[in-house]
Write a structure and sequence with these properties.
single chain; 195 residues; alpha+beta; four-stranded antiparallel beta sheet; 7 helices; 25% strand; globular
């Protein structure tokens, strides 16, 4: 009887794994301004939370994981709370499926490779905040930087070495957007899609 239960348990676990969706958690403000989290510790937390196939990418707070949980809002809150408790900082993430991120990256409207400019995606967990950034940015000087609204994302391009100095960069750095936006270079985003 016990032998029959084992294959059934394995089949159930395998079916649950097949139903899992690949997610990407983008942490804001990690390994800057005194908030240091080692990739191994970050991965360990996500494993403890019960996620499968956990992998961190670079040291800027990017975690790929599989889960069958479908309530994205509850999932995001659970991860943020665990990060706060474990690492003792005011943690905020943008949580997306890998498919959503792939679609966003594929729609990047500016030059992908440019010797003078950096390509960025500004991810948001609150569409109203992304709309507000667009509105407050107003007419962006295309000689300096470019900004365009996409589905669930802002596409941004700025001069190399000035990703903290342009008008859009200064706008994105405001405390108001801390809990709902985070930016990633397009090359980083593409690394998140190779797994």
């Amino acid at each position: 009887m016990a032998a029959a239960k084992k294959p059934a348990k394995a089949a159930k676990k395998s079916a649950a794994k097949n139903a899992a969706t690949r997610h990407i958690a983008l942490l804001r403000g990690v390994n800057v301004n005194g908030i240091t989290i080692k990739s191994a510790d970050l991965k360990a937390l996500f494993v403890e939370l019960g996620f499968d196939e956990v992998r961190t990418v670079l040291a800027s707070g990017n975690v790929l994981f599989d889960t069958g949980e479908s309530d994205a809002g509850a999932l995001r809150k659970r991860i943020e709370q665990a990060l706060r408790e474990r690492f003792g900082y005011d943690a905020w993430i943008v949580l997306l499926t890998q498919k959503q991120v792939a679609d966003m990256a594929a729609a990047y409207p500016f030059e992908r490779i440019d010797e003078e400019r950096h390509p960025y995606l500004v991810f948001g967990s609150d569409a109203a905040m992304l709309d507000e950034v667009m509105e407050k940015a107003g007419t962006v000087d295309p000689k300096l930087e470019r900004l365009k609204r996409g589905k669930g994302v802002l596409y941004w391009q700025c001069p190399r070495g000035e990703s903290t100095d342009t008008p859009v960069a200064k706008l994105l750095a405001k405390t108001r957007y801390k809990s709902s936006t985070t930016a990633r270079n397009l090359r980083t985003v593409e690394k998140l899609l190779t797994d």
